Amino acid sequence: MKTLAALNTQVAEWKGLYEQSDSACELLDLAIIDGDREMLTGILGESEDIRTKLGELEFQLTLSGKYDQRDAILALHAGAGGVDSQDWASMLMRMYIRWSERKGFKSEVLDTSSGEEAGIKSAVIQVSGDYAYGHLKAEKGVHRLVRISPFDNDHARHTSFALAEILPKVEEGVDVQINPDDLRVDVFRAGGHGGQSVQKNSTAVRITHIPTNTVVTCQNERSQHQNREIAMRILTARLVELERQKKEKKMAELKGDHISAEWGNQIRSYVLHPYQMVKDHRTGVETSGTDRVLDGDIDEFITAYLTSQVGR
């Protein structure tokens, strides 16, 4: 019913745009016959409105993947580089949370692993909203930061890396079947920096899917049951993504254009020194508004990438 409602909405939008343009054409003919300049001016404004709506509807066609309308699970991982990369991962985490707010999406931090000095080693965030995964799938890959390190006493320029992993929210038993015998579940005490943040009971959960050697841990919640539920949610999404990647890799290899989204293949660079620029290496889109981008204004990169993938 949810899928049917979404399709009905799309059809209604296209029909409405067709009727609007058809009506504008009729008015244009009358304006030309009558020589009505005021009406012509009004039609010109309406044609711009039609053009804008058409662009928005055409962009929606890029969000037609199997899971595009689902919620998304965003996993961030700091790369090599110690505290600088961990700080960079936390900056990306803030960027995506701010982007979610701009889009009217809801973001929920499911799990985090803090860095020793600053930042995070990893984080898992669920972004909920219509077509959240369809948008965020454009962000998967390695993000590179170049800046003067605030953690270096010599004020040297450092290059840091972080990996964004984008997964669709899926349901066990509906999108994927998991055999309980294929799972190994371990419980342990949640870590922390000491004091009250360290759990005295074994509430953290680690689930290993033995056939694929996929490991998921969760320790954010105080309840072992809650941690297990979240870990299963992430594991289910990862297993579906693994299957999707296998199919995508096979098709891409046949086309001869397969590029891994893992370490070594950066999709975007954020340069804060010696000049300011953010550049997407897949589309060539760049801007000098680094503060704006890091505050969550990344739609121009997402739109450019998704549009470039139409028909591929």
Question: What are the defining features of this structure?
Answer:
8-stranded mixed beta sheet, Alpha-Beta Plaits, 42% helix, 24% strand, 312 residues, Double Stranded RNA Binding Domain, 3 domains, 3-stranded antiparallel beta sheet, alpha+beta, globular
CATH class of the largest domain, anyone?
Answer: Alpha Beta
Q: Give the quaternary arrangement of the chains.
A: single chain
As a percent range, the share of strand residues is: 15-25%
Total DSSP E strands: 11
Q: What is the average per-residue confidence, as pLDDT, rounded to a whole number?
A: 87
Give the total of domains.
3
Question: How far is it from the N-terminal to the C-terminal residue, by CA?
Answer: 30 Å
- Helicity range: 40-55%
Give me the strand/helix succession: HHEHEEHEEEEEHEEEHH
What does the largest sheet look like? Answer: 8 strands, mixed
The CATH topology of the largest domain is Alpha-Beta Plaits
Low-confidence stretches: 193-199
Radius of gyration: 24 Å
Biggest sheet, strands in spatial order? 2-3-1-5-4-9-10-11
In the CATH hierarchy, what is the architecture of the largest domain at level 2?
2-Layer Sandwich
- Helix/strand structural class: alpha+beta
Q: How many DSSP helices?
A: 7
Q: Which term fits the overall shape?
A: globular
